[in-house]
Amino acid sequence: MEQKNHPPASLAWLVWGLGAAFYFTSFYHRVAPAVMTDPLMAEFSIGARELGQLSAFYFYSYVFMQIPTGILADHWGPRKLLTAGSLVAACGTFLFASATSIAAADLGRLLIGAAAGVVFVALLRLSTRWFPLRFYATVSGIVLFVGVAGATFAGIPLYFFVEGFGWRPVMVVVAGLHLVIGAGIWWIVRDDPAQRGYRSYAPTDPHAVSSPKTLLNGLIRVLRYRNTLLLSLLTGGLAGPILAFAGLWGVPFLATHYGLSTAASAAITSAMLIFYAVGGVLLGSLSDRIGLRKPFLVFGSVISLLCWLPVLFIPNLPIWLLTALVSAIGLAGGAVIVSFACVRESVPPALAGTVSGVCNMGSMGGGMILQPMIGWMLDLQWRGTLVIGVRIYDLAAYRSGFVLIAVFAALAILAALFTAETRCRHTADSGKIANTPSS
């Protein structure tokens, strides 16, 4: 069947939207523990180290899945990955909701993370086929916006649902939602517009990945490009601190040391995530329009560190200033979307899924490392204070843990400075070698 026209926008957005619905729920899981710290610590009789591990189990499997997900996205296609991921997410969420021990809860989070690990890369792969290349960073920014909407739902709305119904029933409902999303993806989503009789936006590549051996070779090729490592480190330095603060430790820190309610603390951390989404759309679209990547990466990294320092280490900031700085961190962190566009342009088109998986591994790796490490440092500094079975940590304990956030933010600046510019086009195709290692 001859494909004469590109797919209509309505169909493209429907296909993309079902995958984005899964991403909405995956981001919800990513930060949900932030407003359930007290119930979880009391329920399982755990401290900050165990809580950090419980939250980080999501990231352990998520990060592990990134390279196989990128390879499978190139080989099997997004539809199968997203459908299977939805089913596994439903099982993991139900296990977490019914857990009677911390080990079972950890396993539930592990399954959820593994399932969520397929979503972002699969969505990026769909974007390359259903949307024009010139809109790639913009669409990627909207992906982030949808995900952060899920994280925002895991803020104040989740807090009130947990207060009203308990955290276990809420999670059971989310498990059912995963099943509905999975059915919709299997029924409607297709890997390429050609499967619906339309022209694909993806460039034809005669060297497309097609066997296990070439899949491995593709991974090796991706890792040889200098930008792959640099941009993976950069995304970890930008996204990791946001995931650690907004996803777990920000709410108890603000509640303890600014005297805010859990709802008010969740509102401030949600502001960080909302501006993170806005920054992704804004910086991604500006980068597309201007035709440059590196200036946005450097700008986002520098602003991020400059704003983190007073938030983490200056006590008793006015609430308006604290909120403004937290929002600025989120806005600057949106530069991660530009990094995904840049790294994709640094390799041949056939390796887009693989390199996206590697880069996303860096992004989630930051949260995977920071959440339990901060918890471990908090427990080391704990003075023995308990309130209704929940450990309370003083300002000195939080400062010792938050040093790691500042270190990660500083590493992002270094990575941005050494990243090679792609000028919004495939440098690998044009024969440029600025982003490859010297021989």
Task: Catalogue the unreliable spans.
Answer: 205-210, 430-434
Count of distinct structural domains: 1
Tell me the span between the first and last alpha carbons. 46 Å
Element order: H for helix, E for strand: HHHHHHHHHHHHHHHHEEH
Question: Based on DSSP secondary structure assignment, what is the total number of beta strands?
Answer: 2
CATH topology, which one? Growth Hormone, Chain: A
Assembly form of the protein: single chain
Average residue pLDDT: 86
The CATH class, by name, is: Mainly Alpha
- Any guess at the CATH architecture? Up-down Bundle
Main sheet? 2 strands, antiparallel
Question: Strands of the largest sheet, in order across it?
Answer: 1-2
CATH superfamily: MFS general substrate transporter like domains
- Strand content range: under 5%
Whole-angstrom Rg = 21 Å
Shape: globular
Q: Share of helix among residues?
A: over 70%
Given helix and strand content, the structural type is mainly alpha
Contiguous helical run count = 17
